[in-house]
UniProtKB/TrEMBL annotation:
Record's signal peptide: 1-18
Gene designation per UniProt: Scrg1
Keyword set includes Heme: no
Transmembrane region(s): none
Protein name as it appears in the record: SCRG1 protein
Species, as recorded: Turnix velox (Little buttonquail)
Cited Pfam families: SCRG1
Keywords: Signal
Keyword Iron-sulfur included in the entry's annotation: no
Gene Ontology cellular-component terms listed: Golgi apparatus; neuron projection terminus
Length: 87
């Protein structure tokens, strides 16, 4: 019984460590968008693709930048229909 308990706890710990993490950064004197961000769509104000590709989305709000993997930010059903321009 103890072995089963330990296995359950270890597997839950591994799942928690593998979960995508969002980051929050204060912008200070900087503004959005920054040089490594591209606007997603005109209708999504203050939402930007971060870096190369379309795996991370950032939201700029009141001198703060919140960045998350797109599946976490929108949910996997909505993220699949958000257009990605990888220029």
């Amino acid at each position: 019984m103890k072995t089963l308990m330990v296995l359950v706890l270890l597997s839950s710990l591994l799942c928690a460590l593998a979960a995508p993490i969002c980051s929050r950064r204060a912008l200070g004197n900087l503004s959005c968008p920054q040089e490594n961000q591209r606007q997603i769509q005109a209708g999504l104000k203050d939402h930007f693709w971060a870096g190369q590709g379309c795996k991370e989305i950032c939201y700029c709000h009141q001198r703060e930048l919140l960045c998350c993997p797109k599946d976490v930010f929108f949910g996997y059903k909505i993220a699949s229909v958000i257009p990605c321009d990888q220029q």
